[in-house]
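Dear colleague,

Thank you for sharing your sequence with our group. We've completed the structure prediction you requested, and as agreed, I am returning the results in plain text so they can be pasted directly into your records. Please verify that the sequence below matches your submission; if there's any discrepancy, let me know and we will rerun it promptly.
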Amino acid sequence: MLPYPQIDPVAIAIGPLKIHWYGLMYLIGIGGAWLLASRRVQRFAPEWNKDKLSDLVFWVALGVILGGRLGYVLFYDLAAYLADPAKILRVWEGGMSFHGGLIGVLLAVWLFGRRNDKSFFALMDFIAPLVPIGLGAGRIGNFINAELWGKATDLPWAMIFPTDPAQLPRHPSQLYQFALEGVALFVILWLYTRKPRPVMSVSGLFAVCYGIFRFVVEFVRVPDAQLGYLAFGWLTMGQLLCIPMVLIGAGMMVWAYQREGRGA
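Please find the predicted structure tokens below.
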């Protein structure tokens, strides 16, 4: 068993002002995405300047934060937030939904594309390889918060999390998700986009890979207590939301290559 590193969730405290690691991870994710985008933007839109790129990153970040928070409220814990609406603002306590954030990004990109005369799917293909940076950083934030831990196990890398009432050795599922959704997904998309690809295929590959990675890790991750398992004694909300994501992503890739083959 590995010892859980006792990291104070508060990174910086100045009097009543507290800056949490969870929030800093989002800033790292957004900053890292902007740096990577600035390297790739000339191939995507040579006419864009730094201000235009910054506008896109701002819109996407807004979609991630608002969509992620509202998605968690709607998909995972609506009753608790209705009982205490002010809890919605306490983002440092955790409670962000990837699928909600994805919906927020889709809406933000659609609006940005309309205002800037850019194709929705071309923009999504440009953004998709940037997303794993934020996903990986977010999972490190979950780990520091000692939240979203896994099921009990006797594997040698199991950890006892301070927030676990049972104090059992558990899968560090946050680190599994960091490795898959952050590192592996970034490498896959980065290698795939080294050559020109059909429009929509990069977005489709992102959806397929993320959906599969998340679906697999959910088998060893404890579901949200207020929801539990939704079907068959093992299907979680995360898995339920990933199934259509994988199917739609696969359909997008097939359609993208078929359109290219027809010369569309």
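Summary note from our side: Residues 10-261 form one domain.

Kind regards,
the structure core
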